[in-house]
Design a protein that fits this description.
heterodimer, A: 269 residues, mainly alpha, three-stranded mixed β-sheet, 12 helices, 3 strands, B: mainly alpha
């Protein structure tokens, strides 16, 4: 891969260490949901600014200014999509933590050098930068200890659920129906995507294609990381991710990535 | 030239002292976060309306008749009518551009896209 000097390749494990260190420096990571908004706005003093139709105009959910004093966020996302908002802010924070050194070496001193820089960033390089920031965001918002604790609890619940129905039967006999049952099992915490904290004007409330936006955010991070799970593990993990989503107040994908990476699937029966 | 956002700085400082992020603050008091952010960054002058100012003062937790209350209105009066004619200078605008920037449709970011973004940043 063609790489500009200064763009470091951070492995997932390296980013894990960086995100953990960063969180503990600010006393975060014990309580969930991790209050990334408070860290960025109140503690770091970064202005988080709603930007009307940022996504429609420039095809990005958010960006951090190159002097790290401002994070502009698509206004619709800022107002209506709480878990995505939190992920997006953590992603931009990730750019600040991981990529400030990379940016500084270009010594941008005006519009011309800026345009030269952004148009010179290659496709692969850009993808790598984005994946790194996504990993940072997921690791930062889903702390390992809290995930393990809640995952274990949910996995036990699934064991109870299965064993109460298939007492004394062989696993091969019930596997298929168990998978289906878990798929239909209510998570009991409502739909995490329907968080709408703001009073908003009627013209803003029309639906928007959020699935594709989410895929753009997370897609690169999950690619190639899924181990060959059996159907029960896959279905149970999906179920648990949906249950945990409101607890961590993030979309289920960052949770799923961490479950995979932390090898928690083995806790499923 | 940017008008030094004395009123805005004071506003932001007090909001943070109360433990609110801008987003929480605006949610709690049904205020527009875009406008309050501009106010805090000195991109918008304090409101002319006494009523609106009182609404802000109450949201920030000031009690009528206290020093804080008067200081808030004094600062607002001092900044009143000082409408910054250039909200951000060129240097500030370049600093406001994304650290990393890419559009999905066109592989390269063009000068025009950056110019468009700058125009929008002046008003955001």
């Amino acid at each position: 891969m063609a790489q500009a000097p200064g763009l470091r390749f951070f492995s997932y494990e390296e980013i894990r260490k960086i995100a953990d260190d960063y969180a503990s420096r600010y006393g975060l990571g014990k309580d969930i949901p991790v209050d990334v908004d408070k860290l960025v706005d109140n503690i770091l003093g970064i202005n988080v600014i709603p930007f009307p139709s940022l996504f429609r105009s420039f095809e990005v959910n958010a960006f951090i200014s190159n002097d790290f004093s401002k994070i502009y966020v698509d206004e619709y996302l800022y107002q209506n999509l709480e878990p995505q908002y939190r992920f997006t802010v953590a992603h931009e924070l990730g750019h600040m933590v991981l990529h400030s050194g990379y940016y500084k070496q270009f010594k941008i001193d005006g519009l011309a050098s800026y345009v030269k820089f952004v148009s010179g960033v290659g496709e692969d390089e850009y993808k790598l930068i984005e994946t790194q920031a996504n990993h940072f965001a997921g690791l930062f918002l889903v702390p390992a200890a809290a995930l393990r604790e809640h995952f274990t609890e949910q996995a036990k619940d699934i064991v109870r659920f299965i064993s109460s129905r298939y007492k004394g039967q062989r696993r091969d006999n019930y596997l298929g129906t168990a998978v289906e049952l878990i798929a239909r099992k209510p998570t009991g915490r409502g739909n995490p995507l329907r968080v709408s904290p703001f009073p908003r004007s009627p013209q803003k409330s029309r639906a928007r294609s959020s699935p594709s936006r989410t895929n753009l955010m997370i897609g690169a991070a999950t690619k190639g990381a899924t181990p060959p799970w059996n159907p029960l593990e896959r279905q149970s993990t999906g179920h648990i991710c949906r249950s945990l989503s409101p607890i961590f107040n993030v979309h289920h994908q960052p949770i799923q990535i961490r479950i995979e990476r932390d090898g928690l699937v083995k806790l499923i029966p | 030239m940017i008008t030094k956002p004395l009123f805005g700085e004071y506003f932001k400082q007090k909001r943070i002292e109360k433990g609110f992020t801008l987003r929480e603050f605006c949610r709690r008091f049904a205020l527009d976060p875009g406008n309050i952010s501009k106010l805090e960054r000195g991109m918008m002058p304090p409101p002319e309306s006494q009523e609106k100012l009182e609404e802000y003062a109450r949201a920030l937790g000031f009690k009528k008749g206290t020093d804080e209350w008067y200081q808030f209105f004094d600062l607002a009066a001092a900044c009143k009518g000082v409408i910054p004619h250039e909200l951000m200078d060129d240097e500030e605008l370049v600093k406001s551009l994304p650290i990393i920037f890419r559009t999905f449709r066109s592989k390269k970011v063009s000068k025009k896209t950056v110019d468009d973004l700058i125009e929008r940043l002046k008003k955001t």
